[in-house]
Automatic annotation (TrEMBL):
Signal peptide, first to last residue: none
PANTHER family: SPERMIDINE/PUTRESCINE IMPORT ATP-BINDING PROTEIN POTA, SPERMIDINE_PUTRESCINE IMPORT ATP-BINDING PROTEIN POTA
NCBIfam families: 3a0106s01
Family matches, as SUPFAM superfamilies: P-loop containing nucleoside triphosphate hydrolases (SSF52540)
PROSITE patterns per UniProt: ABC_TRANSPORTER_1 (PS00211), ABC_TRANSPORTER_2 (PS50893)
Pfam families: ABC_tran, TOBE_3
Protein name: Sulfate/molybdate ABC transporter ATP-binding protein
Upper classification of the organism: Bacteria, Thermotogati, Deinococcota, Deinococci, Deinococcales
One MF term in the entry's GO annotations: ATP binding
Stretches assigned to the ABC transporter domain: 3-237
Keyword list, A-Z: ATP-binding, Cell membrane, Membrane, Nucleotide-binding, Sulfate transport, Translocase, Transport
SMART domains to which the protein is assigned, alphabetical: AAA (SM00382)
Top-level lineage group: Bacteria
Classification via InterPro entries: AAA+_ATPase, ABC_SmlMolc_Importer, ABC_transporter-like_ATP-bd, ABC_transporter-like_CS, P-loop_NTPase, Sulph_transpt1, TOBE-like
């Protein structure tokens, strides 16, 4: 089911947590809200969930205005960063909870509940753990139970607030892949909040970049990464090397888009290698520019490092670069609405 928010604003005292936010999430998409801490991502999710009432603006679910509907009646599943499972209930009981507390005629019969819970536990690959208690599971497993629990009541949409934030890197990676696969299987319209750009780029259909309570840019991962419309988006999506500044514009290049040469080539910048740092299969090379205009960081496969060494004079070219206005974003961009 599609989600639309139109001209949403929300103040906390004098602080504008959301300012005139308009966003369309088509049916079946997985959308990432990406932005720094305090930029309003969680507030937007809470407004959509009905946990926060906006000062102005509307929320529509499948075209229907639900701005003033209570959180219970919205058909929205919510998964938080800190898996709030019931500690005294088994995994099975946790997932069954939302079904068992349904009123009278809406409550499925016990065998139906059992079948449904077991199917969901299979979906999150935890059917073997049905009788366990949350304390007997790892963090990633608990988070999968939380997801199964949110899905049990057949929500129309799923909201995930930093669902993997509290987990270590390898478990996060595993759950990311898994969430993407799950989404491809069930096509539930989902919005997830993250401040991890790699996570957003990897699994989202669309990315919405937030900055200070407003949408800075939205688009597919390729659009926002390859065509950032503002300096803020460029910097937020990855490491940025400043190549030049002139007339209120700044020219930037990503570390992967810089090439190192041992001999001078036309249009290259000269510099000296100050550090070589190998991170797994990748080499990161710091170069101090000879014209004293600052340091550049270059990433390349370790196998292409050749005989490069600290102190060596090298020449740099940029395969791709972007020129953007400096300073605060003069306007908010939207690649496609
Ligand atoms: N109930 C509240 N009362 C007062 N201020 C609030 C309240 N909820 C949020 N804020 C403020 O609104 C701003 C946006 O908060 P929000 O949680 O939406 O940001 P976020 O982008 O989700 O950040 P994070 O990534 O740290 O979770 C923050 O400055 C926060 O302090």
């Amino acid at each position: 089911m599609s989600i639309q928010v139109q001209h949403l604003s929300k103040q906390f005292g004098t602080f504008a947590a959301l300012h005139d936010v308009t966003l369309n999430v088509p049916d079946g998409q997985l959308v990432a809200l990406l932005g720094p801490s305090g930029s309003g991502k969680t507030t937007l999710l809470r407004v959509i969930a009905g946990l926060e009432i906006p000062d102005t603006g509307r929320v529509l679910l499948g075209g229907q205005d639900i701005t003033h509907a209570g959180p219970g009646g919205r058909g929205i599943g919510f998964v938080f960063q800190h898996y709030a499972l019931f500690k005294h209930l088994s995994v099975f009981e946790n997932v069954a909870f939302g079904l068992k507390v349904k009123r009278g005629g809406q409550r499925p019969a016990p065998p139906v509940i059992r079948d449904k819970v077991m199917r969901l536990l299979e979906l999150v690959q935890l059917d073997w753990a049905a009788a366990r208690y949350p304390a007997q599971l790892s963090g990633g497993q608990r988070q999968r139970v939380a997801l199964a629990r949110a899905l049990a009541v057949e929500p129309q949409v799923l909201l995930l607030d930093e669902p993997f934030g509290a987990l270590d890197a390898s478990v996060r990676q595993e759950l990311r892949d898994w969430l993407r696969r799950l989404h491809d299987e069930i096509h539930l319209t989902s919005i997830f909040v993250t401040h991890d750009q790699a996570e957003a780029l990897e699994i989202a259909d669309r990315i919405v970049v937030f900055n200070a309570g407003q949408i800075e840019q939205e688009g597919t991962p390729e659009e926002v990464y390859d065509h950032p419309a503002t300096l803020f988006t460029y910097r937020f999506l990855g490491k940025a090397n400043v190549l030049a500044r002139a007339g209120g514009q700044v020219t930037l290049a990503r570390p992967h888009d810089l090439h190192l040469h041992s001999e001078s080539v036309p249009g290259a910048w000269a510099g000296v290698i100050t550090r070589i740092h190998v991170v797994g299969p990748e080499a990161r090379v710091d170069v101090a520019r000879s014209d004293d205009s600052g340091a550049l960081e270059v990433y390349l496969p370790k196998t292409q490092l050749g005989g490069a060494s600290v102190g060596q004079v090298v020449y740099l070219t940029a395969e791709r670069q972007a020129t953007l206005p400096e300073g605060e974003s003069p306007q908010r961009f939207r690649l496609r609405s």
